[in-house]
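Example record for the data management plan.
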Amino acid sequence: MQLLKDREQELRDRHGITFRITGIASRRLGWISDPSGIDARGAADASSAMPQQPAHTLSGIQDWLAAAQADVLFEATSLNVHTGQPAVDHIRAALNHGAHAITANKGPIVHAYRELRDLAAAKNKRFLFESTVMDGVPIFSFFDQLPAIRLQGFHGILNSTTNVILTEMENGLTFDEARKKAQSLGIAGYDAAVKTAALITVLMDVPIKLEEIERKGIRNLSAEAVRAAKKDARPYKLICRAKKTNEEQGITATVRPEQIPQTDPMSQIAGTSSYIYFETDIFPGLALTEENPGLYATAYGMLADFVRAGT
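Corresponding structural encoding:
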């Protein structure tokens, strides 16, 4: 919300977009709505955003959307890798209400992309999710600018947490010490697998289940092996790969630690940086690198989607 407020004048002057925040929902605050507007700076500090309509009068998201008279929903609940809920239900409710839906949650892409895409089209609304992979880097909208291109495959480093752990192990920490320092999910490759599934589902137009992705984490790599690989100029990285096969609708996909030669750009990806390399039928290789994203990176992806929805 802070980024939205910081860019308010630019949104108005450059894009002709004005807005007011009319609803906030969280576990701590409940369902807050005020169609006349909630102070954005107060909303950024949720403790000072006081509900104009008591939370107990709203029974759930449908009532909340109606009470807020919402035109756009920003959905940012925690990832549920097994079902994509409650994000799927939130986005479905927003589209049925007649609002654009913007999410930073990968779950709905993996578990309900086609349903939500088709529902958005039927309602003449937008379902947007640029922040789900590589923060706000324009991966999905990038391919919107490449009509009729055929994506044959991709590989890259998409899990910053695992990358941080490997970097810290190279610097002398044990796995457990590095994991504690990272303080996040992704150490078993789940986060990277979900991102891989999202890219396959949207960009290759092939729905894929997480269990169809061969997945191996970094837990069994010893600190000694990681440091030795670095010394030999073949560092370990957790690599996501997807490739079309000759079979109809066939995709092979893996997420697993690999030793990467020093000549490969992926060997230089450290800390919270990310990298992806696309192989297409027209362009043999297109690469995007994100260098140690800052605090607003994910928020920017949602802001960019907001502009797309409003123009």
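Summary line stored alongside the record: The CA atoms of residues 102 and 267 lie 33 Å apart.
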